[in-house]
Design brief:
heterodimer, A: 97 residues, 33% helix, flat, B: 491 residues, Amidase signature (AS) enzymes, eleven-stranded mixed β-sheet, 11 strands, 38% helix
């Protein structure tokens, strides 16, 4: 796998990787993707994909209000908070009035 | 009189029930054992002695005043560190969650508390349950109590090691591709993956949601059955939780296996299977035969594709599930951020690059690739179709037999470090366990012998979906008619 392609996958995955990591994962992915080529031997014509282990249909419940976390609990693990909100870096430019 | 940490679940329960043993005494013995051995084995990442003793006292008090006691009767239980307990650090073996303290209990934790289990602490694991050796944890390597130079297996290696070393009689793990059964085999304890949907995953940190299932570890089949009884059942908070009656798992032991049909699979005995493991497994199957079962050959022609199928599906689901770790709501956020030059995307990428370890990154990369435009059909979708072929094989086999018996892993516990630089070799250690997760069927590992080097070997039994009762019954016979592997020496 070309290093540019590895870099693209890392960017899709939102992972900042060092050059050394990019090289290692490139080699690993090449090896693993080579191994999974074995699946080409299997006859999968007219086979339905199996995304889940049990064939569950849609599960519905009444749309009723139930207990939920209060604000303090919901914010208790926030890396940065003002006690009211999760704080994130500014993402919109501030225009002077 | 054997030490408390050597006694069977049944004898502990009857002593508790008769008032000959208090939960405080038993819990204290477990805490002492942890004190004595954890430095060496690193099975527990955290221990909550005060909460455990308070719970034990509460159970003892209720027993003394003749009130109803739950099924676990004050037995100590360890919990894998990816199962949430309100107010208790749940780190998943990751730097990403090193300070994460869930504000709620997992369904299985609610069940443990309701049935009077005494939760003593959180157990080490491979980071985000991705691994087969418990070497990738941010909390360090866990060692095998039978020989500390060897791995306890993984990803629930802490749970297996803790039960093997007598630190707790019972523990909860999770199994996505063999993460309960393989460490149970390596550590000489009983470990079971229930049918997909039998146990609610509410409060289990997600790895691969179409495969993950919580299950019990115990010293013996009785203990595993008891713990399964406690955690099974419907829960509306996990939409994959199946709403069907929970059978009585503990009432079926010591029955003849007359009429039970056991299948053996030629594909299991191929290249890579260690000779000593094969011999012990074959002896285990012969013992089931002498207990009345009939044995015949069945075919699982697609079994050889299970590792390739799994290592596309599981990383794909993981890359999606782990997208939630972005440094915003909880988990690690980078300090290395300059609002002048960096944007929100840089915050995500750097937080994730710092927070995740090597194996987790590798799988996120693999899954992202397999799901990305242009590759989805060739990798992910193809794997989902082969998955159905694997399931169809089991459906055909279970029309002919009740149980499939074979090895848990190709070898006994490998050495620490042996496979760390070869991800594919590590993945192949799951070759016999993975297909049960892909098909959703239950499987159990029961000790069936020791290698000449004194390392345990496990026998794997698998059954059709929701046949846990039959599975446990057969496992109990394999155990009682087997030559016992003896007490772990904690070398």
């Amino acid at each position: 796998m070309e290093i540019d392609e590895v870099r693209k996958v890392a960017s899709l995955a939102r992972l900042e990787l060092s050059d050394q990591e990019l090289e290692t994962y490139g080699q690993n992915l090449t090896q693993i993707l080579g191994y999974v080529e074995v699946l080409n031997e299997v006859d999968i014509k007219e086979v339905m994909p199996m995304p889940h282990a049990v064939d569950l249909q849609n599960v519905f419940r009444p749309d009723e209000r139930g207990p939920s976390l209060n604000r303090t609990a919901a914010l208790s693990n926030a890396p940065k908070t003002d006690g009211q909100f999760f704080q994130v870096p500014q993402i919109l430019e501030q225009k002077d009035a | 009189m054997p030490e408390l940490y050597e006694q069977s679940t049944e004898s502990l329960l009857s002593a508790l029930n008769a008032g000959d043993l208090s939960s405080r005494t038993l819990t204290t013995a477990c805490l002492d054992r942890i004190d004595q051995l954890n430095k060496k084995l690193n099975a527990f990442v955290s221990v909550n002695a005060d909460a455990a003793l308070a719970k034990a006292d509460a159970v003892d008090k209720r027993r003394a005043t003749g009130q109803t006691i739950g099924l676990l009767q004050g037995l100590p239980v360890g919990v894998k560190d990816n199962i949430c307990q309100a107010g208790v650090a749940t780190t998943c073996g990751s730097r990403m969650l090193h300070n994460y303290c869930p504000p709620y209990d997992a369904h299985v934790v609610e069940q443990l508390n309701a049935e009077d289990g005494v939760i003593v602490g959180q157990l080490n694991m491979d980071e985000f349950a991705m691994g087969s050796s418990t070497e990738t944890s941010a909390s360090g390597v866990t060692r095998n109590p039978w020989n500390p130079e060897h791995s306890p297996g993984g990803s629930s290696g802490g749970a297996a090691a803790a039960v093997a070393a007598g630190m707790v009689p019972l523990a909860l793990g999770s199994d996505t591709g063999g993460s309960i059964r393989q460490p149970a085999s390596f550590c000489g304890v009983v470990g079971m993956k229930p049918t997909y949907g039998r146990v609610s995953r509410f409060g289990l940190v997600a790895f691969a949601s179409s495969l993950d299932q919580i299950g019990p570890f115990a010293r013996d089949v009785h203990g595993a059955a008891l713990l399964l009884q406690v955690i099974s059942g419907h829960d509306t908070r996990d939409t994959t939780s199946v709403d069907s009656v929970v059978a009585n798992y503990t009432g079926q032991f010591n029955q003849s296996l007359e009429g039970l049909r056991i299948g053996i699979v030629d594909e299991h005995y191929g290249e890579g299977l260690d000779d000593e493991v094969e011999a012990a497994v074959r002896r285990g199957i012969e013992r089931l035969e002498s207990a009345g079962a009939t044995v015949k050959s069945v075919k699982l022609p697609h079994a050889r594709y299970s590792v390739a199928t799994y290592y596309l599906i599981a990383p794909s689901e993981a890359s999606s599930n782990l997208a939630r770790y972005d440094g915003i709501h909880y988990g690690h956020r980078t300090e290395d951020f300059n609002s002048r030059n960096d944007g929100l995307i840089d915050l995500y990428c750097r937080s994730r690059g710092e927070g995740f370890g090597a194996e987790v990154k590798r799988r996120i990369m693999l899954g992202t690739y397999a799901l990305s435009a242009g590759y989805y059909d060739a990798y992910y979708l193809k794997a989902l179709k082969v998955r159905r072929r694997i399931r169809e094989d089991f459906d055909k086999a279970f029309a002919e037999v009740d149980i499939i018996a074979g090895p848990v892993a190709p070898t006994a516990a490998f050495r620490i470090g042996e496979k760390m630089n070869d991800p594919l070799a590590m993945y192949l250690s799951d070759i016999y366990t993975i297909s049960a997760n892909l098909a959703g069927i239950p499987g159990i590992s029961v000790p069936c012998g020791l290698t000449t080097n004194g390392l345990p070997i496990g026998l794997q039994l698998q059954a059709s979906t929701f046949s846990e009762t039959t599975l446990l019954q057969a496992a109990a016979m394999a155990e009682t008619s087997g030559d016992t592997i003896g007490v772990c020496p904690v070398a």
